[in-house]
Design goal:
globular, binds SN-glycerol-1-phosphate, TIM Barrel, single chain, alpha/beta, 236 residues, 8 strands
Length: 236
Amino acid sequence: MKILSQITQATQQLAVLIDPDKCSEERLSLLVEYAKEGKILFFLIGGSLVFKNQMKFIVDYLKSRCNTPVVIFPGNPSQIDEGADGLLLLSLISGRNPDLLIGRHVEAAPLIKQSGLEVIPTGYILIDGGKNTSVSYISNTTPIPSDKPDIAAATAIAGELLGLKLIYLEAGSGALNAVPIPVIERVKKSVDIPIMVGGGIKDAEQLKKVFEAGANIAVIGTAIEQYPHLLASLDI
Ligand code: 1GP
């Protein structure tokens, strides 16, 4: 089944974000075991800043050991790896940086078109997570204030009307605060496309609240990076 169809049908499913610079073979092998147990809907690989040349190794490692889809979450076009299954084509619609609304897309479009990757057009919306994050700093954009669900909802509706297929509400990796529940609830009520929520989710209790607020998919990176067995305790 196509990844977007899986996302659209998903309720309360988990995507695990792998930062290619912070990934060991030991950790990957644990993630593969949890993926085989059905705990992970798909892997996301990438990040705002990636310095080590490990993308291909990680993609090949996962693809050769389990059937869980591998989706590129590109911080820049150099992170696109043809061996993966899909790609989030991110439009940073909470920001006003033209490069991240259309510029990078133009640069990468021919490569993406010929890659054979399943492209998932995604409205990427940054929500203030209580501290400045890499994604906000590197993208040179200001997140939406966390107490402004109306702005988040209007932004998500605009993304849906523009034809995007997925909304990703992002507090930023390692955020102090996850995306607030009222923001998730408001966005969920406002659009008919699926919603993915990530940044700062640290435990099972928080994850449950994010799901109850309406997230189809939750993304966890840092907490699982620090303690992969967290996956065992999650009710998914
Ligand atoms: C970042 O939303 C993801 O893009 C995951 O964030 O690392 O805080 O889990 P964390």
